[in-house]
Amino acid sequence: MTLPASVTPPTKADRELLAFANSAEFAARDLYAVAASLALFNDDERAMLVGFHDHHRAAGQSLAGIVGALANNVRSDAVYNAFRGRLQGTDKNAVLDALRELENTLASTHLSLVGALEGSEGAALVASILNIEARQSVALAILTGRVLDDALTNSAVALSPVVGS
Amino acid sequence: MNRFSRRDVLRLGGVSAAGILLAACGKQAGVEESKNVKSIGVMPETEGLANVEVTDIVLLRTAASLEYNAIDTYDAALGLGVFAGAFAAAGDIAKRLRDDHAGHANAINGLITELGGTPFTCGNPRLNEIYIAPALALITDADNENPALDVVVLAHALENLAAQTYQGVVTLLSDRDLRRAAMGIGQDEARHAAVLAQALNPGIAGVLPSVDADTGKPNVAAVPSAFGPLTPISVTVGPVNADGTRNSLILETPSLNSLAYDDVVCA
Lengths: 165, 267
Known about the structure:
Number of domains of chain B: 2
CATH architecture of the largest domain in chain B: Up-down Bundle
Shape of chain B: extended
CATH class of chain A: Mainly Alpha
CATH architecture of chain A: Up-down Bundle
Distance between the termini of chain A: 44 Å
Largest sheet of chain B: 2 strands, antiparallel
Number of domains of chain A: 1
Number of strands of chain B: 2
Shape of chain A: globular
Strand order of the largest sheet of chain B: 1-2
Number of helices of chain A: 6
Structural class of chain A: mainly alpha
CATH topology of the largest domain in chain B: Ferritin
CATH superfamily of chain A: Ferritin, core subunit, four-helix bundle
Structural class of chain B: mainly alpha
Mean pLDDT of chain A: 95
Number of helices of chain B: 6
Oligomer: heterodimer
Strand content of chain B: under 5%
Helix content of chain B: 40-55%
Radius of gyration of chain B: 28 Å
Radius of gyration of chain A: 16 Å
């Protein structure tokens, strides 16, 4: 019996891509912190937002672990600023919609990374994060009363990795 | 009169036994040679297992087989006629998810063809035998009080299994484009699982992990953890047994004994 090659570690180029993912995840963490601080959410909703915040933090930390010294462990301001302006006001569903779009954007970005990473170790970690962000997007779609197709499809455009910074 | 001492008797007995043993082990006239251990009589030839290779094509054929498992399960569920009344909406979801799986199967088989492999167009026989057929038998048992709910429970488990399988093969596939294609579908399966989780445990209480206060067992969650799990999936379905319990099946992602190798064909 011939088995596939064992798990391969990230290359130098992989680590730069994963460092980008690390900063994108920390941007999502901070965006959820903003959302959870808004007065328009009740305790149950806030608990969910804090839970998603924790998932993004865990994702960022795991990516940092695999990236090593290249991880800067700070949020991507580009990602943060792209969504921050929509996390305000009195329309609860509008805020949750913005977060759903954030999840879909990150899912698309991670899917793009899975196809770009050479080492399977990094690709596997990103894949495990991607599956959870897809689920979080579904939860947000259902909670805002969107149609089934909105929960099941992801048409968000992937972020372009900023590497070598 | 000959007299043998006790020592002589033991010595003679030992020599005789050794002779019989050597005769048994030796080559005998009229007896075919065997590649097996030396033995008296004719032994059948042993045949080694075929040397199989876990290639990208095999992994993709296995993924395709899971898609057909899902299609068959949804078709069986829809055929039961249980999606009526309060479960009518679940029937519409089941149709949509079944159609998605058909699209996935076509996409995966297209990749297999591009790689020079043979598409796999039926459910995984091993998974069908050990998971799906037993589960459907329990669900359709005449004593089962809620087959519609159990069908959704089984579908949720199968969607989780599919999501885990695609996530798991990322480390096994050699080609980056194939990894991306696999996770494009894996993401869809994760979304399916989350939708069905919300059908089973609706609302905000069903989003993150929680525990049933009465039973102490974990509730179904749309987002079960911070990272996509690769753990066995427990499914409890069917009628209540005499001792008050229900049967549980433990589903695991395809392993070496359930991959769709090149020589595995649909019946």
